[in-house]
């Protein structure tokens, strides 16, 4: 078998962990994005292209080097994916899922259209469009880790201005009992693998921890997995998708968000599963079969965020129960994901 080469748009930690997993399969990765060899993904990749995502010469080089291309974050311009597809290199998952994942209103409409319920939502253009009652406003684009969202408190005009004005997405506030997520991987032949659900906690809109098992009743867990599989089938997924869900007090589920890539709430799969979300992502993107080897340990993953997270590292490194992952980021900033630690139940 000759070397397979996977191109990755994006140079962050998700690309880094995908490249590490791809290496186990004998594949090599070329990453395109900011930071080049100094970036989290560039440090472990076979080759790096330091360029803007819209740089056509750089994209052409990536296409020439790669058997297939994937993206590690959802804000890659759709035009870049279209350009790569024109160069006859498969981009997995494709442009459709990227488009849906880039616009919160398109995402909700799509989920509802395939029968997956969400919180009530609407696109608001002016303060008068904002419904009464508890809710949140979110930017339509470029929102992640709780960025670009505001709780409706007091003045609608001020709330709308705080997310950059209309159009924005208004969403009813969900009084959830828990948050969970499922990771689903699907290959070119349609074989599907699921991970989770994991129970997630957030602090300031950023994922703080994920725990498996989630401790939900088995009917709820089954429904969560079914929703993720339905989503994967509906988009003809080739790759990995994370589906974030709210669990209501009666056990029913509402979708919050989809991420068309490996997901932070699936990092525990590196240490608690023989084949992680990243390996199945690399497998699917390269046209190889995904495999379900299950979870061999219960696990808790905690993100190491900002200076407080990094301050824990020396103690964690000498803790025999801690699987420490650091992303090689040069600068520690408040709120920045610097690494994570997974604790396996023994
Ligand atoms: P998001 O950026 O949409 O993933 O939201 C980040 C976090 O904000 C979620 O994981 C929830 O903890 C909270 N959140 C988002 N939307 C809602 C909602 N409609 N109701 C209650 N909490 C929410």
Give a verbal description of the structure.
The structure is a single chain. The chain is of the alpha+beta class and 346 residues long. The chain has 3 domains: 87 residues, Rossmann fold; 53 residues, ATP-grasp fold, A domain (Dna Ligase, domain 1, 2-Layer Sandwich), CATH 3.30.1490; 168 residues, D-amino Acid Aminotransferase, Chain A, domain 1. Helix content is 28%, strand content 29%. The protein contains 11 helices and 16 strands. Strand 10 and strand 11 form a beta hairpin. Helix 1 crosses helix 9. The site of adenosine monophosphate has 14 residues, from strand 13. Adenosine monophosphate binds next to strand 13.
List keywords for this structure.
D-amino Acid Aminotransferase, Chain A, domain 1, eight-stranded antiparallel sheet, four-stranded parallel sheet, Dna Ligase, domain 1, 346 residues, binds adenosine monophosphate, globular, Rossmann fold, 28% helix, alpha+beta
């Amino acid at each position: 078998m000759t070397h397979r080469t996977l191109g990755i748009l994006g140079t962050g930690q998700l690309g880094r962990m995908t490249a590490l997993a791809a290496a186990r399969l004998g594949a090599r990765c070329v990453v395109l994005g900011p930071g080049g060899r100094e970036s989290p993904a560039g440090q472990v990749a076979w080759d790096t292209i330091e360029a803007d995502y819209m740089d056509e010469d750089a994209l052409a080089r990536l296409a020439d080097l790669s058997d297939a291309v994937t993206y590690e974050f959802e804000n890659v311009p759709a035009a870049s994916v279209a350009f790569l597809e024109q160069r006859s290199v498969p981009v997995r998952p494709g442009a459709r899922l990227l488009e849906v994942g880039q616009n919160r209103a398109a995402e909700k409409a799509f989920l509802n259209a395939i029968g997956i319920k969400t919180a009530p939502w609407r696109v608001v253009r002016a303060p008068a469009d904002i419904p009464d009652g508890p809710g949140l406003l979110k930017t339509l684009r470029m929102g992640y880790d709780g960025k670009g969202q505001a709780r409706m408190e007091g003045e609608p005009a001020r709330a709308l201005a705080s997310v950059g004005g209309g159009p924005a997405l208004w969403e009813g506030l969900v009084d959830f009992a828990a948050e969970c997520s499922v990771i689903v991987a699907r290959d070119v032949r349609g074989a599907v693998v699921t991970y989770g659900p994991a129970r997630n906690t957030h602090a300031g809109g950023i994922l703080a921890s994920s725990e498996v098992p989630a401790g939900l009743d088995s009917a709820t867990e089954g429904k969560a997995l079914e929703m993720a599989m339905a989503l994967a089938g509906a988009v003809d997924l080739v790759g990995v998708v994370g589906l974030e869900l709210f669990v209501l007090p009666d056990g029913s589920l509402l979708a919050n968000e989809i991420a068309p890539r490996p997901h932070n709430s699936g990092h525990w799969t590196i240490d608690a599963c023989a084949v992680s979300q990243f390996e199945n992502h690399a497998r699917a993107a390269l046209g190889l079969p995904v495999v379900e080897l299950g979870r061999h340990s219960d696990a808790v993953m905690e993100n190491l965020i900002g200076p407080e997270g990094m301050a824990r590292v020396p103690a964690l490194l000498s803790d025999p129960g801690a699987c420490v992952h650091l992303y090689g980021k040069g600068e520690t900033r408040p709120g920045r994901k610097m690494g994570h630690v997974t604790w396996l139940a023994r």
